[in-house]
Amino acid sequence: MLTPNGKEYAQKIPREELTHLILRLLQAWKEPLSHFNQHHQELPDDSLSKAKQISSMVHELKTGVEKVTEKARFSINSLNGMTPSEAAGLSISNEANMMSDSDFIHCFRRDSNKVQSYLKILKCRIMPENSC
Amino acid sequence: MKQKLTSSLQIILLLALTAVSLTGQSYPGKPKIIRCRSLEKETFSCWWKPGSDGGLPTNYTLFYSRDSEEEIYECPDYRTSGPNSCYFDTNHTTPWTTYNITVTATNEIGSNSSDPQYVDVTSIVQPDAPVNLSLETKTSANTMYLWAKWSPPPLAEARANSHVYHYELRLKPEEKEEWETISVGVQTQYQVLRLQAGVKYVVQVRCMLDLGEWSEWSSERRIQIPNGESPPEKPTIIKCRSPEKETFTCWWKPGSDGGHPTNYTLLYSKEGEEQVYECPDYRTAGPNSCYFDKKHTSFWTIYNITVRATNEMGSNFSDPHYVDVTYIVQPDPPVNVTLELKKPMNRKPYLVLTWSPPPLADVRSGWLTLEYELRLKPEEGEEWETIFVGQQTQYKMFSLNPGKKYIVQIHCKPDHHGSWSEWSSEKYIQIPTDFRVKDMVVWIVVGVLSSLICLIMSWTMVLKGYRMIAFILPPVPGPKIKGIDTHLLETGKSEELLSALGCHGFPPTSDCEELLIEYLEVEDSEDQQLMPSHDSGHPSKNTKMISKETDSDSGRGSCDSPSLLSEKCRECRTLSSTLQTQDIRDVQENTGGKTSWETQCIASEQKILLLNNETTKSSTWPAAQLPNTQPPMFAYHSTVDAHKITLNTTNVNIAPVLVGNEEKHQSQYPITETVHNNMEKQREMENLHSKTDQTTAQVKQNRPNDKSPFLNPKLMDYVEVHKVRQDEQAVLLKHKENSGKTEKYTVPGTSKEYTKVSTVVDHNIIVLMPDSCIQHTSVSQEPAMETSPNLQQGQAEKNMSYCLTAPSECKRETSGSEYMDPSSFMPSFK
């Protein structure tokens, strides 16, 4: 899944596409996270609860972004976007199954950082007055 | 037989042995003491080697004895030095003694002892080898030398400082066999010169105490001597940083260059890619650094970075360094730190601190979000107070002490994954003390107002001080004489008085003569009303009486007579006393003579002032004071003033005395005596009286009276008026002898007789009326004299009657006389 790797790229992308990208990312990680939680019951309770918390947060974040986009009346071709995202999600989940735990966590961390950065850019684009 | 026995014994022995050997148990073997050693001459240890244990558990015990002693000790410590050892600590170690040590192995079957070992501690000293040997090559002045360092052997008991070790170092090239030994001395380091370049050396070191043996050699250390031509050492990457999350820079530290110029190249590869790139920019960030600009910076990818050092001899790679730019962000410090003091209306002023993010950070687009933190401390303080501000770029400070100086710094950090920036430059805050200025203003205003109030109060005090004092300290009331209207006297309206008295055309001057005249009135108790008492509307009866008296004093002799003088004095006293009583305060205060009496006494009557002063000051015997007080006054000068003064004084003095002693008839005597004594004064008084009378009578002929004859003491012998009682009786004592003199005493130019005694019927006021008719006077006087002790009113009346007629004449005569014409008030007597 291709994501912009730099600030300029991220800024060049139109808002709708950026939003779409975010949503795709969030969607993609939904499955692997749940899979991870299922297969790692042996973790200590703290870590396990943390993992569950993270997956729920991801879900909430996705929902929130969707709502924001609806309110902002972005034209999201959700239908168009979903399919690739699902595919991307599957690919990611396949990869996630393959990779080790540390790699998994590392990848997740990076992708969440991506999402965060994209969201911030989006925020400052939509509403530039708030501490931007 | 014997052979059989021996053989049987042997067989038995063999059997026993085999039995023993079969069972495998026997007494232990003989242990052997391997070694005894002391590390520092204060403790030592012995190790032994056990023999066979005979198949059974064996105990080993060490026994020792010292020198030639018989006593045997056992090992104190079996453990410290390990198994099969005995450790003698300092308490059990005595140098210069020989220990006889044996080890005994014991098991169930038997025991076996080792051979004794004779140990002298001092001979078994051998320290441990030195430790921590480090080697380093250094270059100085184009020569390479080896610098070796080590540490002395550690000791269990921390007493290493007291031991001085001697060291020895040996080295050899790695491939060679022979060692080069160098004696180092007591130092723990050494520099080796004369090294072969490019050779790898092996180094060892050992030590020794001042007595004993050398320690073992330390472990080997190897070092490669740089050849001057060798590949460089491996560089190391220090850090990589991104200031704004768009570019980043890496820095490395080079190793030794091996004697040749070395090039450094940075090579990197990205995650997932095989291709290796070289650093795009070696310069922007300075030496030994690599700058990755925006194009070459990718986020969320891991960089694999290595540095390669290359020189003629070869190259060397550093360890790889993995970098993800997202996590290496360290921004620049915030800029534009500004302070603003805001003063809201109803609140305390506060400080607003604002700053802006570093210029490179792109906060606008949200790409990089920064969090800020500031710290402040008072200028003299030591600890910083750190305040996390968050993402806002301003901060309000409320709780700073006014007047103090603070130091403020700010730094920032990416909101996630990053490190804090450096602190911004110090910013000083000086809290203003405006509000204090306001307080000062208030205090200044208060001070000014209070000072004004004080000034005003002081002015009022000054201006109206007298009144204030009068209010505070009321004047002491003196004896008040009824009938005398002091105010009238004060006003000096002689016209009124005179009109009351029936006299007209009095001189306007209101001298003390008037007063004198008035004072001549003799008063008892309360009433001092003379003739004028009958008169109504007379403001001051006393004055009238006095005038009468003066008028009655046809001759000056009467005035000069002590009695008359006394009368006059009495009157004077009375009057003066009354006046004094009323105006004592004034008199007292106004030394200048502003009493009513004095006021009446005109300027010429300065003496009156004096008199007044005297009288005021005198209480009972002013008369007595007269001579004392005014000797100069009694300079017999033909000066009116002098006379007046004297008279005044006398009057003043006497009058109060009279008044004061009204109730004391006896006092009158002394008064008269004093009067006698002060003949001159009396005369003067009389003169003054006469003068005053004249003044009251409008005619002042005191001046002529001032002539010397007037002051003849002889005249003093005339009449003495004594007051015997407080009753209305007045005693006039007249000296017969004076009677004759009265004539003489009469003022030249005035043939007036002495005085006529005209007593007030009602009161004891004796009015001495100047009687031109000497005869009458004499006649009148004589009976008076006869009845000196008691003056009968009847006689007085007679006299008066006499005088009634006379006055008409007397008037004429008295026109030029000093005395007042009693005709005016003659009827009043009736």
Please provide a written account of the structure.
The complex is a heterodimer of chains A (132) and B (830). Chain A is mainly alpha-helical and 132 residues long. Chain A has a domain at 13-75 and 99-126. In chain A, 80% of the residues lie in helices and 0% in strands. Chain A contains five helices and no strands. Chain A has helices spanning 7-12, 15-39, 45-71, 78-98, 101-126. The longest helix of chain A has 27 residues, at 45-71. The relative contact order of chain A is 0.17. The model of chain A is unreliable at 79-83 (pLDDT under 50). Chain B has 830 residues and is α+β, with helices and mostly antiparallel strands. Among the domains of chain B are: 14-120, Immunoglobulins (Immunoglobulin-like, Sandwich); 134-154 and 164-225, Sandwich (Immunoglobulin-like); 236-324, Immunoglobulins (Immunoglobulin-like); 335-437, Sandwich (Immunoglobulin-like). Chain B is built from 21 helices and 34 strands. In chain B, the strands form ten sheets. In chain B, strands 3, 4, 6, 7 and 8 form a five-stranded antiparallel sheet that branches. In chain B, strands 18, 19, 21, 22 and 23 form a five-stranded antiparallel sheet that branches. Chain B has a four-stranded antiparallel sheet with strand order 12-11-14-15, with no helix packed on it. In chain B, a hairpin with a 6-residue loop joins strand 26 and strand 27. In chain B, helix 10 crosses helix 15 and helix 14 (640-660) packs antiparallel against helix 15. The longest helix of chain B has 30 residues, at 434-463. Mean pLDDT of chain B is 67; it is low at 526-569, 571-822 and 825-830. At the A-B interface, helix 1 and helix 5 of A face loops of B.
Q: Helical percent range of chain A? A: over 70%
What is CATH's topology name of the domain at 14-120 in chain B? Answer: Immunoglobulin-like
Main interface: chain pair and counts? A-B, 21 and 21 residues
Number of strand segments of chain A: 0
Beta-strand percent range of chain A: under 5%
Query: What is the rounded distance between the termini of chain B?
Result: 209 Å
Transmembrane segments (chain B): 440-463
Family (chain B): Belongs to the type I cytokine receptor family. Type 1 subfamily.
Main location (chain B): membrane
GO molecular function, one term (chain B): peptide hormone binding
